[in-house]
Amino acid sequence: MMAAMGMRTNMPWAPADFFVTFAMWAVMMVGMMAPSAAPMLLLFAATRAGRGKRSLPLTTLAFALGYISVWASFSAGATVAQWGLHQAAMLSAVMASSSGRLSGAILMAAGAYQLTPWKSKCLTHCRSPLGFLMTNWRDGSDGAFLMGFRHGAYCLGCCWALMCVLFVVGIMNLIWVAALTGFVLIEKLGPAGTIVARVAGTAMFVLGVMAIV
Question: 103 near 168, Cβ under 8 Å?
Answer without folding.
Answer: yes
